[in-house]
Specification:
alpha+beta, 40% strand, 255 residues, 2,3-Dihydroxybiphenyl 1,2-Dioxygenase, domain 1, nine-stranded mixed beta sheet, eight-stranded mixed beta sheet
Length: 255
């Protein structure tokens, strides 16, 4: 079990949320998939409906407004920052775009939405009362975020400038254009995958699960779709799509 009880270092993926056109349908789907429960009245906090695993926050899902263009997009990943306003300025200076200016979310924290130079959207989270995901790296919780981009080099330059990451080649997958992203302290926070055939650039969200094949079956039964699970050097993985067209991955890591 991986519990997070303190504010994460700058540049660490710390929170995820999703906006959907039918909140109740989404809550049913993700409950069937991961067994998530939902915090009562949490939608009123500004975070959205907070998803709980063993009573601890792991994500949020919100009802999208009718004209919300973020609907049918992706899970949005938020990087931890001790200075949301300062990081937003670095994003703009490095060639990114600040889509939503830093805003206080009650007592919970301060947030912004941004887009990198290759068009991938992400968020910033300056934690206060809400530290972000409190359970990670175990079944039914967030385990990884990787940027997939047709042209990855501008993204690599951008994220190293904004967050001070270093880049390492992935020696386990030498035939792929993949680099790890590491915080200044050496901790790996994800990677950037250059894939010329990708239809757009996006941060891909991966959840750990106990049994990839079983989760694929539950996803299809609950109204989603799924690719055939495959074995990789890191575990058995599959790409799923929820009833609203949102793609994400699930993986069962080796014991």
């Amino acid at each position: 079990m991986s519990l997070v009880t303190t504010i994460q270092p700058d540049g660490t993926p710390t929170w995820i949320d999703l906006r959907v056109p039918d909140l109740e349908r989404a809550l049913e789907f993700y409950n069937a998939l991961f067994g998530w429960e939902y915090a009562p009245d949490s939608a009123k906090t500004g975070l959205g409906t907070v998803c709980l695993l063993r009573g601890r926050p792991v994500a949020a899902i919100a009802q999208a407004a009718p004209a919300d263009t973020s609907t049918n997009a992706d899970w949005t990943m938020y990087f931890a920052t001790a200075d949301c306003d300062g990081t937003a300025k670095r994003i703009a200076d490095a060639g990114g775009s600040v889509l939503t200016a830093p805003t206080d979310i009650g007592e919970h924290g301060r947030a912004a939405l941004a887009e990198d130079p290759v068009g991938a959207r992400f968020g910033l989270w300056e934690a206060r009362a809400h530290v972000g995901c409190e359970v990670v790296n175990e079944p039914d919780s967030l385990v990884r975020n990787d940027l997939v981009a047709p042209d990855p080099e501008p993204a690599r330059a951008f994220y190293t400038t904004v967050f001070g990451y270093t880049l390492d080649l992935n020696k386990a997958l030498p035939d792929l254009d993949f680099t790890f992203l590491r915080r200044p302290d050496g901790h790996e926070i994800g990677g950037i995958f250059g894939f010329p055939g990708a239809p757009r650039s996006a941060w891909a969200t991966t959840f750990e699960v106990a049994d990839t094949d079983a989760v694929v079956g539950r996803a299809v039964a609950a109204g989603g779709t799924a690719d055939t699970p495959e074995d990789s050097p890191y575990g058995r993985i599959a790409t799923l799509t929820d009833p609203f067209g949102v793609e994400f991955s699930v993986i069962t890591r080796p014991a």
